[in-house]
Amino acid sequence: MCFFAEPLGGALTRGEALAAIAGLAAFPIMPSQSMPPRARQLNADRRVTAIVGTTALVGDDLTPLHDATILIEADRIATVGPRAAVAIPDSALRLDAANTWTIPGLIDSHVHFFQSGGLYTRPDAIDLRSVRSYTDELQWVHNNLLDIFARYLRAGITSVVDVGGPFWNYDVRALAARTAAAPRVMSAGPLISSVAREILDPYGDPPIVKIDSIAAARALIDREIAAQTDFVKFWWIVTPEHPAQAFEPVARDAIEYAHRHGYRVVIHATELETATLAVESGTDILAHSVFDTDVSDRFLELLRSRNVIYCPTLMVVGNYGYTFAGRPNLTAVDLQLANPDVVGTLFNMTDVETALAPATLDRIRKIRVPELPHAAMRNLKRVADAGVTIAAGTDAGNIGTQHASSFYNEALHMVASGLSPKEVLLAATRGGAAMMGRSSDLGSIAPGKLADLVVLDADPLADIAAIATVRTVSRNGQIFDSAAILRESAEQIVQRQVNAYNHHDARILAQTFAADAVVRRPGKTLRSRAAIDAAYRDLFARNPQIHAEIIARDVRGDVVVDHERLTGFADGRTSESTVTYHVRDAVISVAYV
Ligand SMILES: [Zn+2]
Questions:
Q1: Domain residues for 162?
Q2: Tens-place pLDDT, residues 360-381
Q3: Rounded to two decimals, what is the model's pTM?
Q4: How far is the CA of 457 from the centre of ligand 1 (A)?
Q5: Which residues surround ligand 1, an ion (CB under 5 A)?
Q6: Is the pLDDT of residue 143 over 90?
Q7: Distance between Cα 39 and ligand 1 center (Å)
Q8: How remote is the CA of residue 235 from the centroid of ligand 1, in Å?
Q9: Cα–ligand 1 centroid distance for 582 (angstroms)
Q10: Do 311 and 188 lie in a common domain?
């Protein structure tokens, strides 16, 4: 299913791309078959581009400027003003942007590239290595970096902050910097942690390092500084064996040490007690909202007086619970944009339960999905009202929280927490730029700023859901039509259909088929997308537990043959069959049993 038709996005030749990836020497790697074809840049041959007739949300306050023109020269915004007032050189590429809204590029301030977002990516949370080995999981992550990069851009996310992982993180940052169809990446390295996670370290490059002494903390920070880290990250985990105070002496010294060397600190601390200690110890950023209880006025004053940046990650904890309960928390945007192979694993929960030890099964069955609005949501509202800088972030990569697409649901839940769409948009742009320490050239639309821009087909100030209507993306002045950024393989398109089936979303399922697609099943032939939508809507309504497990798959070019087992029929039967899919022009044209 290799599709290396042409060189990668941007300047890399295929050889260079493989060399760049091969450079990730920390882990054994095979030449990848998942190099997404080149995303076609609209202005590759133009120095000047004009976005004409848009409503630009300009300045630090996202002030709407109607019927505006944004002039981009090389990688910078040269001018933004009323259409009549901005002269456009003849040599410029003109993009007609009538009836659109242009915002600064979105920034996800909390992601992890060493995690895929799938079911097998955190064996410390659920150990399914007997189903998929952790080295295979990491191999998949390595092989699909360019795919994940492109999905961020497709979602309008032009910058991300990787808040910690193996030293390999810094290679990911370098690869992104050399890839046009990729977000800007800032990175922290291995987490200075109060607890160990050896299970996540099959290669001697651990994402999490248990630190028991000041000397060990300083030594790790020195290594990260040598790798030009962007942040120093702490994992302040509390357990019965590790009370919050136990880590304080090491944390305090290490934070002071990092600051003395000019590095900003970000801390994972999800309890009010630990978060308070982290702020009192000098952290610059809290990587999460407080999840265990409602924050106090004293805590709010601490955050405000020390200019701490607050990154909520509202959905990540619940997404574990939903996945373990066999009901992955996925939006239509996840089903449409997230990597379908990853999403597919989330529906395997019922298929792999037998691989789990009874004690583990018992433990995960006890995990409850927090009722909304949970403490983290209530606290976000209070922290925002207290005037603290919020940097929107998802913790993408964790089980059930997808790279790129999860930003949409996070934003919806920030509004559900009581923030206005404008406040959320500011947290996703200016707040993110503050987190990156790049407020001078990112996070708002103004002359001189880097041309990271997203053109939307709906007004995000009216409804934050508009961030899912991405039409055009500019990263560093390189402009892409959103529809041309991702070009998925036949297998990915068929898997997307299977995911929509397992999520019982007939609309998304039908979208994976051509308008005139033909689906032949015993006793029934469907001859259009509309008929497919109606038929599956009815099937899901009559069989709310129906589930498809792919037992085997064979891919030959644009033909995908699945051997599937269907369970969960209302009448209790199960069925096994072989389905053949023909994919043409990125949709399924024919499917038959
Ligand atoms: Zn995280």
A1: 14-30+107-434
A2: 888 887 776 777 889 999 999 9
A3: 0.93
A4: 31
A5: 163, 395
A6: yes
A7: 29
A8: 9
A9: 39
A10: yes
